[in-house]
Amino acid sequence: MAKYEKIADDLRTRIRAGEWAPGAKLPSETPELTAHYKTSLPTIRQALSVLAAEGVVDKVHGRGNFVRKPRTVVVRTNERHQWEKDRARQSEQTRLQTGATEHDTGLTVSDLVFRAEFRETEAGEDLATLFGVPVGTALLERTYRTRYQEEDEPFNIARSYLVHDVAKGNADLLDPSQEPWPGGTQNQLFTIGIELDRIVERITARPPTAEEAEELGLKPGVSVFVLRKISYDTSGQVVEVSDVTLPGDRTEMVFTTPLNRW
């Protein structure tokens, strides 16, 4: 193991042990850390770069290195969809009390800052095939970003697609000022007579684009999960498609699969 890696290991261990609290400033690179580890400034900087890439420390130009405050972790389980369906027909008062983001983070409605952007777009070959409509069919594209009010970056970037002629069955579904919608997409679909039968999710991982890295506040080396969620109604028709980009450093996927007994 190289010397800078040993130093990074030691600093990481000390941080995790609570020697420096989240947000605390680490000892200066010179003379404190170079003297403590009896090494050169470039070696110290290599060690700190490792920790910065891991998201353990933040380097603030002109101020020094700080222990990174842990950001809210999103725990996304496949059980969330039944939870949403169970709520879809409940009263608005009940639905207003909590939503999927609160369910996944443990936060409350008042903790969150929500932003929705709507636009009409045309179905390319990919989405047209899924929806079973001609290429060029009008779709409603809805982009959602939700963040914890004490953090700057959203938990994810979610783009949801509905066939426009289907969505306009309830004019409120075309209006972004109605968001956040109590009960989420499953309640929205319920208002136009659609019940979901199943949801298929496909998950891949890749490096983020420059825009995604900036918007999600990702350090170099951190990947994103890309989740495509396809919702089918009880007749087997695709009624909603979502593409969700999730930061790999604060998203946990949990899948519970009940097994039939012998």
Name of the CATH superfamily of the largest domain: Chorismate lyase-like
At CATH level 2, the architecture of the largest domain is 3-Layer(aba) Sandwich
Helix/strand order, N-terminal first: HHHEEEHHHEHEEHHEHEEE
Question: What is the fold-level CATH name, i.e. the topology of the largest domain?
Answer: Chorismate lyase
Through-space gap between termini: 50 Å
The total beta strand count reads: 10
Helix content: 25-40%
Radius of gyration: 23 Å
CATH class of the largest domain: Alpha Beta
Give me the side-by-side strand order of the main sheet. Answer: 4-5-6-9-8-7
Backbone shape: elongated
Name the average pLDDT: 95
Q: Kindly estimate the percentage of residues that lie in beta strands according to DSSP.
A: 25-35%
What is the quaternary state of this protein? single chain
SSE class = alpha+beta
- Show unreliable segments: none
* Main beta-sheet strand count, sense and barrel state: 6 strands, antiparallel
Number of helices: 10
The overall number of domains is 2
Secondary-structure map:
Layout: H1 3-16, H2 29-37, H3 41-54, E1 57-60, E2 64-67, E3 74-77, H4 80-87, H5 92-96, H6 100-105, E4 112-122, H7 125-131, E5 138-148, E6 157-163, H8 164-167, H9 184-190, E7 196-206, H10 210-216, E8 224-233, E9 238-247, E10 251-254
Parallel strand pairs: 3-10
Antiparallel strand pairs: 1-2, 4-5, 5-6, 6-9, 7-8, 8-9
